[in-house]
Amino acid sequence: MPDSLPFDGMRFRPLTVGDLPLLGRWLSHGGALEWYSFGVPPTAEEVARKYLPRILGDEPVHGHILELAGANAGYFQSYLLEDFPDHPAVPGADRAAGIDFFLAEEYAGRGLGPRAIRAYVQEAVFAQPGVFECWADPDPRNLRSVRALQRAGFSPVTKTAAEDAILMRIPRDEAVRGRGAA
Ligand SMILES: CC(C)(COP(=O)(O)OP(=O)(O)OC[C@H]1O[C@@H](n2cnc3c(N)ncnc32)[C@H](O)[C@@H]1OP(=O)(O)O)[C@@H](O)C(=O)NCCC(=O)NCCS
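Above: inputs. Below: predicted complex with coenzyme A.
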């Protein structure tokens, strides 16, 4: 793989059953292992239990594979916060969506994350009419993610009471205007 990434060839396609082994591999390495799997690689059954309902439409979470020049590079998902009343960002949130994401380890640390987050918010999240803001809730110790979100135009709003997440927000008009340096 070349050192510089072809950022202009970025697209998001819906997650399929055939992607489950790929998710399992990604969740077993690097930052995704640390921040999503909490250090324990998931089994194929665990991956299917978590992601299959999202593919089948049994859970209101939309999963997408990020492709870069035709290669699978990461996973993004979005959902409406009103479908998850326990989400920490819900109080005061107005017609809001939430996102989560992880890159394949070989694509991390190369400047892709901020651009991909920006593109996902613009192309997937705010493509839904009536969604006015988007939230992310990185662990405060995950400095790379916090920084990537800032580069994508998100601003920190507050921390959860347990201080285990920073609640970060981008309003529709800022995302559509293309604020941020990513
Ligand atoms: C989080 C993630 C999407 C970021 O994407 P990325 O392409 O790796 O990010 P970048 O390489 O562009 O780095 C983002 C910024 O963080 C900075 N950074 C990297 N490591 C850092 C660290 N340990 N401390 C502080 N800043 C750090 C980079 O310098 C860069 O900032 P800059 O553009 O101002 O120089 C990606 O690393 C990832 O998938 N990580 C694992 C899963 C995860 O943490 N998901 C998010 C859960 S909320």
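The CA atoms of residues 18 and 123 lie 23 Å apart.
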